[in-house]
Write a structure and sequence with these properties.
alpha/beta; 4 helices
Length: 133
């Protein structure tokens, strides 16, 4: 089972993908958030054989949805309708900050933030699976 991680931004979207086992996340690319974004997703989903999409849930310090969360929710609905895949939310609190810290300000921050979001999701799913067995 392969997963696609998404760090949504109004100008660009960071993309990550998992390994075949769904246990490790890797930065993939950064896409411009424009009219061709769904076509770009279609290509990546097919190329990477994605079965689930994980989007960063953007909350403020109090845990409430911030300004961009409305756009993220709309984008999530579009992806669900367009691809018929499960689209999950995972908290993205400070992922861009963490990515910048690890990369010393390199350009790939959005893709690395997407990988951090996806890795958190994968780790949480692993822990949940162990608890139920």
């Amino acid at each position: 089972m392969r997963y696609l991680g998404v760090d949504y931004g109004s100008k660009k979207i960071g993309i990550a993908h998992s390994d075949e086992n769904g246990s490790l996340a890797f930065p993939h690319s950064i896409l411009p958030n424009n009219d061709s974004i769904i076509d770009a997703f279609r290509e990546i989903i097919k190329e990477e054989d994605i079965s689930t999409i994980v989007i960063g849930e953007s909350l403020n310090d109090s845990g409430d949805p911030n300004i961009i969360m409305k756009e993220i929710s709309t984008f999530k609905e579009i992806l669900e309708k367009e691809f018929g895949l499960p689209v999950e939310l995972e908290k993205e609190f400070l992922t861009s900050f963490e990515a910048r810290r690890f990369q010393s300000g390199k350009k790939e921050v959005d893709a690395s933030a997407a990988a951090l979001i996806l890795q958190r999701y994968l780790d949480r799913k692993t822990i949940e699976a162990k608890r139920t067995t």
